[in-house]
Amino acid sequence: MADTITHFTHPEHQLLLTHKSSKFWCDLCKISGTGLRYRCETCDFDLHESCTTYPEILSFYAHPWHKLALADHSASTVGSAICCDLCREPVKGFYYKCTPCGFYLHPHCSLSPRLVHSRFHPDHMLMLVPTAGSCSACNKDLMVWTYRCGMCSVNLHYKCLFTAGNEGGSVGDDRVDASKKTQKPALTAKK
């Protein structure tokens, strides 16, 4: 972990690794944080340490047709009301986009594992797939991306999987470790 970095989201100045107990607002993800951060005092610019690791260009399994580019929503021309195509939550800060397809993705959602194990359905792994129907946990309609067990016809909203009661699950051994996801419960990789 370097004491100072140059980051493409703030090329004007170097960012200094800082630890303060006060809250801050991350200028990349637009989510608050405390403690360790990279900071530019001159500009009052802060980044979570984890937000500095997102690449400018990303290949993502749920949108294999094109690479996704990291963009700043405040400089966007797509309008104020865009949602992440994975979690269906509004985009506020930086986001990944596919311009030809109109696909949008929160940076932290790019860490979503393809396969997960959930306490809600401990018998089989659940796979992130596009599907329709209703959620097996909350009975609400599914929006597109769902964690699904095809053998048992169990479907879980993205949000229902990553809420209380599902902590301690695990992701497949060849998938992303979701414990690094912002605002999500820790899931541990299977060894």
TrEMBL record:
The keyword Repeat applies. It comes from Rhynchospora pubera. Keywords: Metal-binding, Repeat, Zinc, Zinc-finger. This is Cysteine/Histidine-rich C1 domain family protein. The keyword Membrane does not apply. GO terms for molecular function: zinc ion binding. InterPro entries: C1-like_sf, DC1, Znf_ZZ_sf. Residues 8-51, 62-109, 120-160 form the DC1 domain.
